[in-house]
Amino acid sequence: MLTEPGIIAVVRAQSSDQVIPLCEALIAGGVIAIEITMTTPNALAAIHEARERVGERALIGVGTVLDSLTCRSALSSGAEFIVTPVCKTELIQIAQEADRPVMIGAYTPTEAQLAHEAGADYVKIFPADTLGPGYMKSLRAPLPHLRLVPTGGVDVQNVGDLFRAGCVALGVGSSLVSAKILQTADWPALTRKAAEFVAAAKRK
Q1: Does 35 participate in catalysis according to the annotation?
Q2: Which site from 28, 46, 162, 177 is most exposed, i.e. has the minimal number of CB atoms within 10 Å?
Q3: Active site residue: 35, 80, 88, 193, which one?
Q4: Is 180 considered catalytic here?
Q5: Which numeric CATH code is attached to 7-202?
C-alpha cells in the first residue's frame, strides 16, 4: 500500500475531529496510505480511531516521530508504519519488533546510507522542496539500493519526474491536504485532489 500507487498523504490536521472525514475523502480519491503526524492534536487517539474506522481500506501510519516513547505509543495506538523526518535510527528496532515498516529521514547521501545500513525500510528525503528529481536520480546513481520517499515540494506536476528518478513513493503534504481544505472542510475538493495525484502516479 505504501508503494502502490505510491502517494502517502501527510496529514497535519487542525483538530482530531477532521481526521476521519479527511481519511474518507482521501480513500475515495484512491490515496490509501495516510500518515497522521504527531503535530495533529490528540494524534494518538486520532490514529486509533482511524484504524478502527477505515483500517480495512487504508494503511494508517504516524509521522513526525522524534523519540522512542512516541514510537512505541503510536504503535500501541495502531500505527501501521512509522515516519520520522530526522535520522533517528533507534526507532528502527522498535518498528521491526512490531513488524511495522519504518521510514527514516535523511537529507545527504551519508545520512541516507546510514539510515539504510541501520535497517530502515525506506529513506525519507526531507525537506525535498529545494532538491527535486535531479537530486533523487543523482543520489540513486551510486546508491541504487536506497528506497527513496521524498517529502516536501511534491505536487501533481513533478510526481511523474520523481518516480522516473527512481523514488518508490512520495510523501505529499500541503499540496494535497491544503490549509484551505482544512479550514473549509471541503472534503469533495480533497477527494478530487487525491484522484489527481493517484492518476499522475499511475502515469509514471
Answers
A1: yes
A2: 28
A3: 35
A4: no
A5: 3.20.20.70
